[in-house]
Amino acid sequence: MLPLILVLLLILLLFGAGFAIKALWWIAVIVLVLWLLGFVARPKGGTGRWYRW
Length: 53
Fold this sequence. Notes:
By secondary structure, the protein is mostly helical. The protein is built from 1 helix and no strands.
């Protein structure tokens, strides 16, 4: 019974990690798009940087 529980816990852990990694990929893509839009929509006059750092 214990090996069965361990295998089920391992499957749940791997499924959760896979979901988290996929979610992080989507967040990274969204941040990249926002970053690129910042370069396109930067102010005409000024230093050309739309961020403070």
